[in-house]
Automatic annotation (TrEMBL):
Biased segments, Polar residues type: 328-342
Keywords: Membrane, Transmembrane, Transmembrane helix
Parts of the chain that traverse the membrane: 6-25, 77-101, 116-139, 160-181, 193-214
Superkingdom of origin: Eukaryota
Region annotation (Disordered) ranges: 328-350
Protein name in the entry: Uncharacterized protein
Amino acid sequence: MLSFAKLSILSLSLTVLLQLILVVLQNSKRGPKKLLQEIVIVLVGMKGPWDAFRIASGGNSWDKESKMDTMMEIIQVLIRGMALVILGSVKISNLIIFLIADMGLYLTVKILRGDFIYWLPFESYAISLVFSFLSRMLIKTITDFTSIVQFRHPNELGGLYFSLNTVITIAVLFISLGLAEDSKTFPPNKIQLLWRIGTVLTVTLTTFFFIFIANIQKRYIHTFWSIMTGKELAFKQFTEAESDSIKARCVFHINKMLYQKFKGDIQTWVDANWTRWEDEKPEWFTELLDFGAIPEEMKPGLARAGTVGSPSPPPRRRSVVASLFHPNNLTPKIHPNQTANPPSADGDVDGDTERLELDTEADIEKFKSGIMSMQSIHFS
């Protein structure tokens, strides 16, 4: 049986490894000096305190939501790590059973709700299945140890399961403490200390959560118990989009399995507008053809290639996933106060994410800088 010390070291090593991966990804383009500084902070075990210092000192122009978000992430790491270490200390099989059951429950819910396929587009159904399996497990694991609120998005965990996941983490902490007390794994004085620490962490996390909820826009509160799936989101965005370019991005930049139920509506829209698109050649349409993002079966039988009635030449195929990283298609991280759908005539907006139109090279460079800044806010 692994000792408490060995499990603590294992948990700590896993946490440090995940932090290093995120730090490298986040700071890879900020220069070697900044990257080395962030790596050293992680290796000496000061990442949490350093983040807390940044928040307390106001060194970054973070809003209240971002501060509460970061504090919740830190506390979630402590609660999850503490629960797993105690559970494994009581009996290693308990830890293994919980990890399998926890992940199994999540994947089962996704499958039963028809929400298992991940949103990234792949032409092969087999590849989509494998990638979805790996992606779902990865996102679930990251959420377990960070509680990043952006993963409540319907394409990820979903609002209700995100909240349920936090409740499960807290429940497992107290269940593991009860098992440790019954099995006398730790001395009585240590058990009492662990109970106090667990209680303080839980109360603190709950307090920060309600402060966070109180500071975000009221129309986003429902996203924490939303049961919307990725398929439902795709349909909502497609039907509510006010322009062809946005409609196209809602369906042709995601996995085609997500829009099978309303594929007929998409086909009707494509058939009704294809000739006009070929005449006007809008930029978004040219890009979709260039990257082969429009499925062949959805193209009209007689598409023009310079003259009416002549079959269109085979498109130049490129990686569909590569199209996601075209400068015009980049999407920033989801912030609690950002929205997904385009503004309506009265300027109102609705949704969970916001897409940006980039018209010039200067805009593109400015947007890239903004992406790095946003990543710093959410992952520093």
